[in-house]
Amino acid sequence: MINAIGIIELNSIAKGITVADAMLKASTVTLLESRPICPGKYLTIIHGDVESVKNSIDIGKSIAKAYLVDSLVIPNIHTQVVKAITGVSSVEKFKAIGVLEFFSITSSILSADFAVKSANVDIVELRLGIAIGGKSFVTLTGDVSAIQEAIKVGKRAGVENGLLFESTIIDSPDQELLKKLV
């Protein structure tokens, strides 16, 4: 069972790979993601028990030094967020949609976690810095009132760290648009 995830983002690909290796060797954690992201940064996401994840992130930060862009440990991560990080979405029926867009990878992941814990919504997509200039976004679906609550709570995560770019709610999205969102 995944208890926590840890995210570390660096502004050097070479240093990012070194950090990822050290993090995996430091504690018993599993690698969810480790890859270059735009623009020329490196992202690593690990999971495991809270203490192991914290230890690995601390080791990563100590090695990253000046290359560190951002890091975060999220205990008790919602399973939908983990599935979305690995590209697995099980949304079968779309209702209203909400989108939260951020300047940071960690803000998007934290926002997605807050959103799905606050309301009965599903994650459609969690895009993390690939081919979008280093930004990230989460797309959610659910009843209008649930989307409104999830967006409100999710926005709070980005506003607190100043990295929320934009958000939107579409009560009744066009079917052609929905086909492109999945």
Characteristic key phrases:
182 residues; alpha+beta; Alpha-Beta Plaits; 2 domains; four-stranded antiparallel β-sheet; 6 helices; 41% helix; 33% strand; globular
Structure description:
The structure is a single chain. With 182 residues, the protein is of the alpha+beta class. The chain folds into two domains: 4-75, 2-Layer Sandwich (Alpha-Beta Plaits), CATH 3.30.70; 79-181, BMC (bacterial microcompartment) domain (Alpha-Beta Plaits, 2-Layer Sandwich), CATH 3.30.70.1710. 41% of the residues lie in helices and 33% in strands. The chain has helices at residues 13-26, 50-64, 79-85, 105-118, 144-161, 175-181, and strands at residues 4-10, 30-37, 41-48, 68-75, 96-102, 121-128, 136-142, 164-170. A four-stranded antiparallel beta sheet has the order 2-3-1-4, with helices on both faces. A four-stranded antiparallel beta sheet has the order 6-7-5-8. A hairpin with a 3-residue loop joins β2 and β3. α1 (13-26) packs antiparallel against α2 and α4 runs antiparallel to α5 (144-161). The longest helix is centred in the C-terminal third of the chain and has 18 residues, at 144-161. The chain is globular, with a radius of gyration of 16 Å. The model has no long low-confidence stretch (mean pLDDT 93). It is found in: Bacterial microcompartment. Pfam families: BMC. Belongs to the bacterial microcompartments protein family. This is BMC domain-containing protein. Keywords: Bacterial microcompartment.
